[in-house]
Every structure is written in structure tokens, then in C-alpha cells.
């Protein structure tokens, strides 16, 4: 019964990621604005984040767009984010600053725009500005997507994201996805309810002390993105979920 309940939630929250998905029109709508903003330094605009990984929910951000800029882009990463914010605002949208992205409603969809400066022409590695720490980090969006897709735990990640959102927890999506992968590492069971229980047990027992590193950059410690207080909030709510029922876990 519990797995049936969780599958019904997933069906309700399903996102169309096909080539004909209506949300893909966002890229066409915003492309002229981004082309004017980046000028000749724009390399590409491509879906990333949860949409590309298969971990998106209908009630979450509709799409993340990664904006790849040429390594010769003269502005600093901080200035790039500032000028992108201004360009989106100047186009008539109402942008919001996030840690590594600019959020806006475009064409009726909730969109996160992530600008990155390519490091060299021979790699897909990019430098991103991290607003909270006022610093930059190296990462590789393709590696992030492949890591999550190859692990095959998208259903569990989607349910944990719904739980996070409904409980108003601070828990960055990629950090959450890597945590789900760690919790289910080596586990062969396809029982969705049992797998979610395993993840909640991991959050209760091991999460707060676990060191999580960016698979694209060993120097980027993703677990540092949450404070100890924020990690303890995740732990406490995981413990509460384990003592309750599925409707209390996610609705």
C-alpha cells in the first residue's frame, strides 16, 4: 500500500522532459535576451539541473538553464551574475538572486538561470560564482547529470525533494541527490517504500557527519553548503518521518 501511495504522488508530480515538452519553449523565449547580454561570449544555453537529471517535480522549479560563457569573457564571475540579473530585470521579468543562479518566471514557468565561464576550450569544466560564500568554484554540469542518471535513484530523489519542499528545509538539490545515492549505494532492492525508509534512516543516523564532495571537483565540499543547524533540522525531520505514516512524510 505504501509503495502504491508513493507511486501515486510521483505520477501526480510527473514532469514532461521530452523534446516536445512545453517548458522547453523557455529557452527560445529567453535566448534573445541572453544573446544580447553575453554578446559574442555566449557558447550555449542548455537544460541542466533536475530537468536534465530526471529528478524534477511539477511543484518545483520547472527548468534550469545552464549558460556557458567563453573563457575570454572579460567580467569577473561576480560581475557576470550581477549583469545577468540586470539583463533579466531589464527584459521585464522579476529576477531573484540565488546561490549560483538567477531565478525568474519566464513564459509562465519557474526558471533558474545558471551562468558559468568555461575554463578552457578542451574541457567542459566551468567556473561558477557562489554568492553565499562570495567565491567561485569549478564544476562540470555534464558530470553532475551523468552521476545522477547513472545511479538510477530518480524516484527516491523526487520524493525526498517533495519532502524537503513541504517541510521547508534548506537542502540544495544536488547535495540531496548525492545523499540519496550514498544512502542506497550497493542496494539492489527496487521496492520504493523500503528505499525511501533507507534514505530517511541515513538522514537520521549518518547525514550530519557525512562529507559530500562534488564528483566534478574534489576541492568543492558540497556538504559545507549547509550549517550544522540546518543539517540537524534535516536529521530531526527524518527521524519524525520514520515514526509517522506516508501521508505525513509527503502529500
From TrEMBL:
The lineage of its organism: Bacteria, Pseudomonadati, Pseudomonadota, Alphaproteobacteria, Sphingomonadales. SUPFAM superfamilies: Nucleotidyltransferase. This is Nucleotidyltransferase domain-containing protein. Signal peptide: none annotated. Residues 43-77 form the Polymerase nucleotidyl transferase domain.
Amino acid at each position: 500500500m505504501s509503495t502504491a501511495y508513493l507511486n501515486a504522488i510521483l505520477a501526480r508530480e510527473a514532469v514532461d522532459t521530452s523534446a516536445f515538452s512545453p517548458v522547453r519553449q523557455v529557452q527560445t523565449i529567453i535566448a534573445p535576451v541572453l544573446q544580447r547580454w553575453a554578446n559574442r561570449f555566449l557558447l550555449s544555453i542548455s537544460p541542466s539541473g533536475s530537468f536534465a537529471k530526471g529528478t524534477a517535480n511539477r511543484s518545483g522549479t520547472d527548468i534550469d538553464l545552464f549558460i556557458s560563457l567563453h573563457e575570454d569573457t572579460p567580467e569577473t564571475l561576480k560581475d557576470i551574475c550581477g549583469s545577468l540579473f540586470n539583463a533579466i530585470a531589464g527584459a521585464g521579468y522579476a529576477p531573484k538572486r540565488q546561490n549560483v543562479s538567477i531565478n525568474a518566471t519566464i513564459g509562465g514557468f519557474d526558471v533558474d538561470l545558471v551562468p558559468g565561464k568555461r575554463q578552457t576550450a578542451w574541457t567542459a569544466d566551468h567556473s561558477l560564482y557562489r554568492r553565499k560564500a562570495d567565491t567561485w568554484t569549478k564544476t562540470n554540469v555534464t558530470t553532475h547529470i551523468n552521476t545522477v542518471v547513472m545511479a538510477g535513484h530518480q524516484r527516491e530523489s523526487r520524493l525526498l525533494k517533495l519532502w524537503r519542499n513541504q517541510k521547508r528545509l534548506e537542502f540544495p538539490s544536488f547535495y540531496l541527490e548525492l545523499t540519496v545515492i550514498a544512502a542506497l549505494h550497493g542496494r539492489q532492492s527496487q521496492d520504493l517504500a523500503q528505499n525511501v525508509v533507507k534514505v530517511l534512516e541515513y538522514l537520521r543516523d549518518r547525514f550530519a557527519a557525512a562529507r559530500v564532495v562534488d564528483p566534478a571537483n574534489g576541492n568543492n565540499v558540497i556538504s559545507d553548503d549547509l550549517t550544522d543547524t540546518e543539517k540537524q533540522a534535516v536529521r530531526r525531520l527524518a527521524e519524525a518521518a520514520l515514526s509517522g505514516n506516508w501521508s505525513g512524510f509527503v502529500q
